[in-house]
Amino acid sequence: MNPWPLYQPIQDGELFSSWLVRNALAHGCSPLAFSGALWPGVRIWATDVDSGMKPSLLERLTSDDFPNVAVAARRFLTDLNCVSNAEIGHGNARWILSLGYRNRRHRCGLQYCPSCFEEGIPYFRCHWRFAWHTGCLRHGNCLLSRCLQCHTPIQPQLLKPPAIDCSVCHACGGYLGFGLHNRVCLTGALQLQSVADHEMNFGSAAFAAGEWFEYAYLLLGILRYAMRSQSGPTLRMLSSLGVEIEPHHQIYSGLPLELLEVSERMQLMALLAPLVAYPPVVVVQAITEYKLPISVFGTHVSKTFIGTVARSLISATTVRAHKQYTFSKSRLPADRSVVEREWLRLQRKIFAYGHL
After folding, report:
1. Which one of 43, 63, 149, 214 is separated from 193 by 20 to 30 angstroms, measured CA to CA?
2. Beta-carbon count within 10 A of 202 CB
3. Could you give the CA distance from residue 249 to residue 235 in angstroms, rounded to a whole number?
């Protein structure tokens, strides 16, 4: 007797977690119950299923009952290791969107294209988990990570019958298809997206894939430093390379790239696109000419950087002595930007856990 009479084949480029949710709903049960039937006693939804699944658990899906599922899950893990040299599944990894799990819930929603959901079978794509993906190359619109009706982060693992597929919000039941969403993605962000996808899939003569993503991550550090500090030398260095930081180019939260909202990442990717188009030697010369300090990279500098190009960027900076600060005992009112940052942080918590 076939235990899965309504089996749903995994789609091209589909996330493993998306496949689990679709099959659970097709069989009239919750994803929690479906995973419990496959792996009794294992709480897979308390972790990032797509990046933290143990190989021993994937072995359960190598039988003929689940064609191509384990292969697709392992292929995605290979891509993750290609772009991030951190240990996947243990904390935030570079370029991999973090979900911020707390039990089965998470603070950050899965990205999706509402136009793609309206066409054919609605499912979550693997490339939507990468931080450089902020728009749909096919439809030209921005990706979303929240329900347009209730603003709750998209968490398909919380869906349950009577939902029949991934096209509805778990919190309000609203349809996630196209609807009123028509925001066009920035052209520069889509260009960067195409370049990054090509580097991940094919590499280039100048870079190994992992080295290119290290290099691009350091350039992001320079952009965020310029936005935050409005440093004259940094702004002039970027301007010499054709990148103008405008007053509206601000990211108030101070969160890592992997935790930013789609609109904030889209802004960064659009600014990054012209920078990565230059040969690394040109960027190194500009850093040297304007005598940028090593602090322009912020926390983006770490021992995990292994590429020669990344090291050349770091070595081009100057190391300056730290200033001695004296702290007053009087408590002054907080700066407006500090208050706004804390307010945004509170909003994220409210929207993440407001629907229990």
Report:
1. 149
2. 8
3. 12
Burial of 235 (0-12, 13-18, 19+ CB in 10 A): middle
Alpha helix (H) residue ranges in 133-231: 187-202, 209-229
pLDDT digits (tens, 9 = 90+) for 7-51: 999 999 999 999 999 999 999 999 999 999 999 999 999 889 998
Q: Is the pLDDT of residue 133 over 90?
A: yes
Query: Max CA-CA distance within the chain?
Result: 76
CA-angle at 168, arms to 105 and 184, nearest 5°: 100
Mean per-residue pLDDT, 329-333: 65
Residue 216 CB-density burial (10 A; 0-12 exposed, 13-18 middle, 19+ buried): buried
**Are the beta carbons of 264 and 251 closer than 8 angstroms?**
yes
* Contact between 96 and 130 (Cβ < 8 Å): yes
Rounded CA gap, 225 and 214, in Å? 17
Cβ neighbours of residue 278 under 8 Å, at least 6 residues apart? 241
Alpha-carbon distance of 253 to 264, in angstroms, equals 10
For residue 234, the SS3 value is helix
| Token couple for 21 | 């949710």
Q: What is the pLDDT of residues 153-209, one digit of tens each?
A: 999 999 999 999 999 999 999 999 865 566 899 999 999 999 999 998 877 656 677
For residue 3, what pLDDT band results from cuts at 50, 70 and 90?
confident
Phi and psi (nearest 5°) for 270? Answer: -65, -35
Distance (Å, whole) CA 49 – CA 59: 14
Of how many residues is the chain composed?
Answer: 356
How far apart are alpha carbons 309 and 214 in whole angstroms?
8
Q: Which of 176, 24, 170 has its CA nearest to residue 114?
A: 176
Neighbour tally for 80: CB within 10 Å: 21
Q: What is the CA radius of gyration of the chain?
A: 22
